[in-house]
Each structure stands twice: as structure tokens, then as C-alpha cells.
Amino acid sequence: MLQLSRIHHIAVICSDYERSKRFYTEILGLEVVQEIYREERRSYKLDLAVNGQYVIELFSFPDPPQRPSRPEAAGLRHLAFAVADVAAAKAALEARGVAVEEIRTDLHTGRQFTFFEDPDGLPLELYEA
Questions:
Q1: Which H or E run contains 90?
Q2: Tag placement on the chain: N or C end, fewer CB within 10 Å?
Q3: E-assigned strands of 6-75?
Q4: Among 47, 17, 20, residue whose Cα is nearest residue 32
Q5: In a domain, 30, yes or no
Q6: Mean pLDDT of 8-26
Q7: Can you give the pLDDT at residue 77?
Q8: Beta strands 112-117 and 104-105: pairing type?
């Protein structure tokens, strides 16, 4: 049987590299591990970490197609970040100008969660850890 040990990373393609870089680093506070410009592809690749754990590759490409999102489109639904206090995290995002949905409670786990979007409309979730 295949033995997967963990998720290595999640790749996100953005339409405006500088705007998304600011969002993921300055608003969400992800740490830059490495930034590479790939001349042959006219593309940036920004490796980002949460608490020292490498998790996201942020890519730029010339004129990427729009991603279908809502209503529920087939494919990756959203990216969730674990937080200790959903209300505090929501307030911190809103203080930075990010629109965040109302907090809900997961009926199966009893934990709180909410959603917001990155600059390209990718659904992001805060989930109570």
C-alpha cells in the first residue's frame, strides 16, 4: 500500500504577484522561505511557510485563466489554516481590510470556522485548532 507521510505543499497561481505576495506575507503573516524568478517562464515562485513548516508555493504566470469558484466548482475547494481563536483571527484580518464571513460552528466537531478570500478569490478558511 502507498505510504504517504504528510502534505508537502499546496501550489497557488495568482494573477498579480506583488499583490498576492503582500497578502500572504503581510496580511496572513506567512514566512518567505525562498523567492525565485524563472526567466524562461516569466514566472515567480515564492515558497512560504507557517511556523517554519513549508506549505505554499505561490506562482505567477503571464495571463493565467480565471479559476471557477462559486457556486461549488469541481476541484480544490479551499485552503484551511488552523488557528487557536477564530474570532481573534477574524478581527485581525478585518483590521487589515479583509472581508471575512460570519463565524459558524461545525455541526460535526463543534469547532468554529469562517471563510475569506485571497486577492484572486481563492476561498481560504480559518478553522479552530
A1: helix 86-95
A2: N
A3: 10-14, 31-38, 43-50, 53-60
A4: 47
A5: yes
A6: 95
A7: 81
A8: antiparallel
